[in-house]
Write a structure and sequence with these properties.
two-stranded parallel sheet; disordered N terminus; 8-stranded mixed beta sheet; globular; 608 residues; 21 helices; 16 strands; 2 domains; alpha/beta; single chain; Rossmann fold
């Protein structure tokens, strides 16, 4: 999944949306092998969702219906994917907090932690709910509750091992620093209300979001400053960063070394080619690649044209940097300005803010990826493939007709890369059938079964074409980002990262210490991992920022592959992949690439 800043902002706000309940496999249950097998539910509301959030009676009715359906689903279905179970259990946890069912809160926190496979998240999952429960059980005077909660929260946070949890705690702190009643109400009014009005109902996924929002509004946001203060104390007490085990493995090829020019395709949101003049491919028509607009029509621009929004570039870039600095707990002017802006944000300002971040996130994404893919390789020749992504809160309605145009564009794109002689293509983007289903709901398709059927038809058109395009180019090594949703790419049918081909590598993200990031998706198709945490690279115009995501990890692998092909142009994609895998270091499910070791293997004498 392509990193974009609209999903990043929403992830920070919706950190506790998911759901689940007690699970035990019995032969009578229906086995759920993929996300599409899960039951669909819809709920009719008596008023707009944003009003339901503030209406005790209407919300209680919705909550009871959702809880009944979750418990029924889990009683009748054998859900075998841990992230699906986490989504169910997280919604039940939010409901238990709202119901002040303290015993169930503690049980669900323990179950969620038991499901977690990432060490940092295992230790930090449910910390706010745990401290809230502890303080609530003591029944303090209401005026003293916040102080008691902060003490209990700090008591949970303080002993946690810093090296393991620092990224998670910084992420939690930044999430609360930007979160507010206005932000939640604005997101609901601008994104959920219109869809509910058109469809006449909301889906189970959206109902889960509303339950999380209600819990934030009622229970957690009143404690926002206590949460941030306790986390700030923990962070301030540990100035040391994780050890950097990544940088020593990197290898830069010298400009005067022996090598062959190698074409590297960056199939992304567009690239500012002016930043890479010494490393550009030029075709017979004088182009450095190709571009498609949102409707898969060919366009000449290789970076998204901002048009009237160009005047907002300095402000937008400053806000992007502010978000990134908050995530990293960096005190900067941009972070302070963003906090002031977010604290004064009104509900009607949420949509313009989110869409601006999405627009400029997409505008900058491909250039950032290209900078990583080309770094340290004087023999690299960039071939740009621009896709245009919808940055709006309510995307265009998916259609079969557009899916067919997109499918044709996939095939044409790979054909162009082949004709240009590209050896490796980086793809830091993706999507799933569930994404399409959500977009259909956002555009007012209210029948859940019809939505499911239509989403599947549209998804299959794209999946089949993309897979066929990859298979048509066995001479190219395809490198895909796993995704940023902390999910199993196989279960959620995320493409292209769920594909399996001998000339394809799927990449998850670790931090500089080689530990799996909280956001990185996983699954049997994820072959290797690379640094995808606060990676420094260019954005259009030449400024450098540090982005995080599997979007930043994948081009590290494309970079290594490009160096292999430059040093030995006779390598096949399969042999290059084998060298990358042979040099990687396996620790648990993390298979961390080691560029120095892989390049040493290439140069090692071959056995007779």
């Amino acid at each position: 999944m392509r990193l974009s800043f609209t999903p990043l902002v929403l992830t920070l706000v919706w950190a506790a949306l998911a759901a689940s309940a007690l699970h035990s496999a019995t032969p009578a249950k229906k086995v759920v092998e993929k996300a599409d097998d899960l039951p669909r539910h819809t709920y009719t509301l008596p008023k707009p969702p944003s009003e339901v959030l503030r209406d005790d009676a209407a919300f209680t009715t919705l909550a009871a219906a959702v809880k009944k359906d979750i418990l029924s689903d889990l009683a009748t279905h054998d859900v075998q994917d841990r992230t699906a179970l986490q989504r169910y259990k997280s919604t039940l946890l939010n409901l238990a907090v709202l119901e002040r069912d303290f015993a169930t809160v503690r049980t669900l926190i323990a179950e969620l932690r038991a499901l977690e496979e990432k060490s940092g998240q295992k230790l930090t999952t449910g910390l706010v709910a745990e401290a809230w429960t502890s303080a609530s059980i003591k029944r303090p005077d209401p005026a003293a509750f916040t102080q008691l909660f902060q003490a209990d929260f700090a008591a949970l946070v303080t002993p946690l091992p810093w090296e393991t949890v620092q990224d998670n705690l910084k992420e939690l702190k930044s999430g609360y620093e930007i979160r507010s009643d206005s932000l939640i109400l604005g997101l609901t009014k601008e994104q959920i209300d219109p869809a509910a009005a058109k469809a006449g109902n909301i889906s189970g996924d959206v109902a889960g979001q509303l339950i999380s929002f209600r819990n934030q509004l009622v229970n957690y946001l009143p404690l926002k400053f206590a949460i941030v203060a306790a986390l700030a104390d923990k962070i301030a007490a540990h100035k040391t960063e994780k050890p950097d085990r990544w940088t020593p493995t990197l290898v830069n090829l010298a400009a005067n070394s022996t090598g062959t020019p190698v074409k590297i395709g960056v199939w992304d949101s567009g690239v500012d080619t002016a930043l890479f003049k010494a490393n550009l491919h030029t075709d017979s028509a004088g182009r450095h690649g190709f571009g498609y607009d949102l409707h898969a029509n060919p366009v000449p621009e290789l970076v998204f044209p901002l048009g009237a929004a160009e005047a907002q570039t300095p402000q937008a870039v400053a806000r992007l940097k502010g978000f990134l600095d908050l995530q990293a707990s960096i005190d900067s002017e941009e972070a302070s300005d963003l906090q002031r802006f977010m604290s004064a944000l009104q509900p009607d300002q949420v949509k313009p803010m989110v869409e601006e971040l999405g627009l400029f996130g997409n505008w900058s994404h491909g250039t950032h990826v290209a900078g990583i893919a080309l770094a340290g390789n004087p023999f690299a020749r960039l071939v740009v493939g621009r896709i245009t992504f919808d940055h709006r809160m309510i995307p265009e309605k998916p259609t079969v007709e557009q899916a067919r145009k997109d499918a044709a564009a996939y095939l044409a794109a790979v054909a162009y890369f082949r004709s240009a002689g590209v050896r490796v293509i980086n793809m830091s983007w993706g999507g799933s059938v569930r994404d399409i289903e959500g977009a259909l709901e956002a555009n007012g398709m209210g029948d859940a079964e019809a939505r499911k059927k239509s989403a599947r038809e549209i998804f299959e058109i794209g999946r089949e074409a993309l897979f066929a395009a990859f298979k048509s180019a066995p001479e190219i090594l395809f490198v895909a980002a796993a995704g940023n949703s902390d999910n199993n790419v196989k279960f959620d049918e995320f493409i292209p990262s769920s594909f399996q081909l001998p000339h394809m590598i799927t990449v998850g993200a670790v931090d500089q210490a080689g530990e799996e990031t909280s956001f990185s998706s996983f699954g049997p198709m994820v072959n290797v991992h690379a640094n995808g945490f606060e990676v420094d690279s260019y954005i259009p115009g030449g400024q450098r920022l540090k982005f995080s995501g599997t979007s930043m990890a994948a081009p590290q692998v494309a970079n290594l592959a490009g160096k292999l092909f430059a040093l030995d142009p006779t390598l096949t994609p399969e042999k290059a992949k084998a060298l990358i895998l042979a040099g990687a270091e396996l620790k648990g499910r993390v298979n961390l690439i080691n560029p120095a070791k892989t390049l040493a293997l290439l140069k090692a004498p071959k056995s007779p």
